[in-house]
Amino acid sequence: MRQKLLILVGILISALFLWIAFQGLNPSVVWEYIQRAQPGWLLLGALVFYISMVLIAWRWSFLLPTTAKIPLSYLAQLYAITYMGNNVYPLRAGEVLRVFLMQRDYQVPVARTSTTVFIERIFDGFVMLGFIVIPLQFIQVESESLRIVFTATTALFAVALVAFVVFALKPGLLRALAGFIARLLPESLATLVLRLSEDVIDGLTGLRSVRQLVGAVAGSLLTWLFNALVYWLVGLAFDIHVGFLVMLVICGAVNLAGVIPASPGQIGVFEASVKTVLTGVGVADDLALAYAFVVHAVIWLPPTILGFILLVRRGLGLQIFARARQATISA
Known about the structure:
Layout: H1 2-22, H2 27-35, H3 39-63, H4 72-88, H5 93-106, H6 110-133, H7 144-169, H8 171-183, H9 187-205, H10 210-237, H11 244-256, H12 269-280, H13 285-313, H14 320-330
Helix pairs in contact: 1-12, 2-13, 3-4, 3-10, 3-13, 4-5, 4-13, 5-6, 5-14, 6-7, 6-9, 6-10, 6-11, 7-8, 8-9, 10-11, 10-13, 11-12, 12-13
């Protein structure tokens, strides 16, 4: 019942953001812009997105503390399946399946893989904040709301960076802070806070090797730079020439907006985020929304198709998602 309620809330949130994105626009004009997109740039964007998936799998190899030698090809395929699951099913089902398959195929404990997934989100969050804070120092922004977002994001980035460094060097401080917060919460929430803090500490401990830390940082930057390159290439398909720095901001905004519990694939939230940034730098509303729909398709469709093909090649059906969720809950 709780899962069904969360799914319904996600659908309603997506519908709300789509309504916001279409406010004051003519859908037929948006469709005309979509039809004018040059397919060559779109295909190139899809290819670059596949490369970014290999890079993020390479990054994961540095975060995953295991004695088993896991081929990069396996990790990359697993990421494609993860993307497909997240794009099609609610409640981040792809991440759950990734944890399950790592346990099944390489006997990596559920808790260990789950920890790396959590640490990935921390690295991704820093990169996304950086993609917003740094480029906006050099971009002429026309939108007052975007300036407010810039100010808030800069403050958040500074606080998060200081906290990350302090807790990485002094994990005891994080444990003490988590213990203090846990004492103020009901037992179920307190247990969750303590477990998450230990997961973060375990993950950061695994990064104290210079090689692992450098690999994780380099992998994060390369992954998301290639991801932003997809946005830039799709922009060329629409003759949108706002510069790569703006595409970094879009990439950061879209992925940070991913924390909003919308429907699978972040429908609505994605489009509203892209449109907000582009109109903030002077792109026409209709063109901005047309671009948002197409770049979303380029990022959503290729990994979804590839992930489904790889899932079938492994002899697995879509019912594996429910089985994986049950198995990881039991673990």
